[in-house]
Amino acid sequence: MLTKRIIPCLDVKDGRVVKGISFVQLRDAGDPVECAKAYEEQGADELVYLDITASHEKRKIFLDVVERTAAEVSMPLTVGGGIRTLEDIKELLHAGADKVSINTAAVENPEFIKMAAERFGSQCIVVAIDAKRREAQWNLADTSSMGETFKYYTPSTAALVPAWDVYTHGGRKNSGKDAILWAKEVEKLGAGEILLTSMDKDGTKEGYDLDLTYNISEAVSIPVIASGGAGQLEHLYLAFIEGMADAVLAASIFHFGEFTIRQAKTFLKEKGINIRL
Amino acid sequence: MIAIIDYDMGNLRSVQKGFERVGHTCIVTRNPKDIANASHVVLPGVGAFKDCMDNLRNYGLIEPILSAINSGKPFLGICLGLQLLFTESEEFGKHKGLDIIKGKVIKFSFDTQHETRNTQHLKIPHMGWNDIKIERRPPALQDIADGSYFYFVHSYYVLPKDGSVVATKTSYGIDFVSSIWKDNIFACQFHPEKSQKVGQRILKNFGDMNP
After folding, report:
1. Is the pLDDT at B107 greater than 70, yes or no?
2. pTM
3. Is residue A126 part of a domain?
4. B154 catalytic, yes or no?
5. Using CA atoms, how far apart are residues A85 and A151, in angstroms rounded to an integer?
């Protein structure tokens, strides 16, 4: 039977590992290749690198990290961050990445997903969706017809049915797209997988956004990786059981040694999740 | 020397590094001479079936592959390198394959009518780690435990006409053929180069086979 995947994620800047808290604070934590090897030793099912290097000129450093990693580990490697052109994808795949994760460029130009999938195959095109729960809009009701004017507010439908907006540019810009509709669209365009991050939960250690994960996972027939918010092993369990995720991504709970991947996998296996030990 | 056939379909570096890590030397090549001189030949590949066949044809690699197989030297197909050996594929219309193994390549298709929160629907592609049931043990699977996990990523699977070529099966909605073994050919749907220790063992076994 197909097992659920546990995927550690490393944020890489200028060739070094960092882990941001809610995309803001950064903390240097070492050599990505050494981390990758340690994670493989612990039984990680895949690995994700997110390149947060700001300048495009420093791309070479990241390509070198990808190349050294692919030479040292024997598990699938997904890389993301700042991918804008087919040439970017080609370079990363050539350096040894197995999949690339695209966010902003996909939102700005959905055809890019299609072109990338046609050129390189759906299996290596991951679309990253950064989703934030849409806040309820409170509308001022019009009471003039009642003869007497008094103010009261009615909630929009967003307050009744949970909905999420898609953010780009590292979570800074609301694209105005609905996350569930966008997930369906990227599937149609040829994405092979969705990396779904809850902006609300990311960095909080409160657990994944299970409603978001469940809604996206059920809306598409491609695999969904839940991301953002893991703080305890129970959270991973809930992402599978309640969120129906196909895989979970986590950074800090593994990265600062709170739990090893093997501990997480043993915990999940004992709770009845189908896991490769 | 192991020749890994390069026809512009996917990441061959990990296959090459995988062999090197277990002590086998190999070259990545599309030169028919290298393929003819190689002791072992590997046909990897990810992407679309038709593109792969087109590239093999355009690079003049079909004859070299057929003669490598006919020469009896160990031949390893990985992922699309398994599917290409078959008669035809139904990926985006019907496309002819190398027709070395009789049979076809078809897409996973699952009934999604009865989804509930408790019975998760099966996703396509079949992506991740799944176990193999060994039905016949080719030299490449020596010392690989039955039930070992390998990394898969594919939406199509092979359906051989002759069941006697089946080496392993894997369960995903149905029991599909996850590897075949016929004479000097071993070809698998999963990726040994991405499957950590058990995968490396397959690459080592393959390279250790006598030509």
Report:
1. yes
2. 0.91
3. yes
4. no
5. 51
